[in-house]
Known about the structure:
Layout: E1 11-15, E2 30-36, E3 41-47, E4 53-56, E5 65-70, E6 87-88, E7 93-96, E8 100-106
Antiparallel strand pairs: 1-2, 2-3, 3-8, 4-7, 5-6, 5-8
Amino acid sequence: xxxxxxxxxxxxxxxxxxxxxxxxxxxxxxxxxxxxxxxxxxxxxxxxxxxxxxxxxxxxxxxxxxxxxxxxxxxxxxxxxxxxxxxxxxxxxxxxxxxxxxxxxxx
Length: 107
């Protein structure tokens, strides 16, 4: 697996609610961006739909995905430092609330 391109830049993959299936249609309300380098992954989930949606998660690095930010959560639980972010144990999907952005981190 390549984690960086020929210029040593992180690799970006696009998803929708399903892995590797971004919906680029003008009426789409969802998009997920996965950024990975040799030691870290960042997953940004955007749900612009008016209902919660479940998004498939790519395989994390190390101990699992950490919930770094969720705009649907009440403050101060909406954001955490990377070291304090809760680990999503063995999750294969994540339900993003309506009109929210979620950021997951893995290393």
